[in-house]
Amino acid sequence: MNVTGIITKKRQPRVSGKTIVDKACDDRTIERVEEKYLITKEEKTALLKKIEKNLKHDEFYKEEVLSIYFDTKNSDLAINSIERPAFREKLRARMYKMPKGKSDVFLEVKSKVVVKKTKIGNKRRLILKERDFEKFLKGESLISLAEKSHKGEFQQLQIARELAYLMDYYGLEPRLFIAADRVAFKGRDNPEFRLTFDENLRFREKDLHFKKSTKCEKYFPSTDSPKNSIIMEVKTMNAMPPWFVAELSRLKIYPTRFSKYGKIYQLINERNQKNV
Prior knowledge:
Elements: H1 8-11, E1 15-16, E2 19-20, E3 29-39, H2 41-51, E4 55-71, H3 76-83, E5 87-95, E6 104-115, E7 118-129, H4 130-137, H5 142-149, H6 154-170, E8 173-187, E9 194-204, E10 217-218, E11 230-236, H7 242-251, H8 260-274
Antiparallel strand pairs: 1-2, 3-7, 3-11, 4-5, 4-8, 5-6, 6-7, 8-9, 9-10, 9-11
Helix pairs in contact: 2-7, 3-8, 5-6
C-alpha cells in the first residue's frame, strides 16, 4: 500500500524562489522551510556561544517532546520516511510536557515536500485536551470529540474530518512512542526563525500513551558524550539569516537526513530481522 500524497494537491505549497507564499495563518496550520543537522555537544556549545546574541528563548524553551506515531500494520508511513519520495507525510500526536490532566495534545498530519531543492514542511493540527485524546485512543469518534471542544471553529473541524478519514481509510493505529529533551530558541529580531536542539532520544513500542513512564530505550549509545547525538533543527519562513549560515560554515556543520520515526523504525526492523 502506498499512502504518500493522500491530500497532496490540497496541502502542497506554492513557492517563489526560496520564499514561501502560503505562510502560516495560525498555530493550527504551519508551513515553513526546515533543515536538520546531527551535531555533537561540543558543536552545540561552540555554535550557541557565537549566535546567542541573535537568539532568545522560545515560549517552550526547555521541555520534553513526547510523540505517538500512527502507521499502517505494514508501516507504510515509516517506509516512506526512509525512502524519501518528493512528497511524504506522517501522522502523530504530540505533547510538549508531561501531562497534568489539562495539557493539550496536538494531533497532526506533518507533510514534507521538496521544491527546487528547498525542503518545505507543513503541519495541520487538531488541538485536543489530554483526556479527549485518551477517549479517542479508546475508540470514541474523533469528529464527535472535535465538535464538542471546537464548536463553530471551521478549520479545526475540517482538520478533524481529514484526520478521521486518513485513519479510517488506511487503517492507521498507534505504533511507536518517541521522546526527546528539547531546548528551543527563536530569532531575537526574527521570531519566524526557530532553532531547536533535541537530546536523549528514546522510544518504546508498548504503552503508547502520554502517561508518565520510564520504560523507554535510548536510540543513541549511552556514553557520556556520544558523537553526533544532538538533533538540531532549523525552521524558518524564509531564507536562513546570514549570521547563522556563516557560523555553520565556520564550524563545518552540514545538513543531514534524519527522521526520528524513520530511523527508529529501521533500528527496530533490523533487530527483528536478526532475531528471526
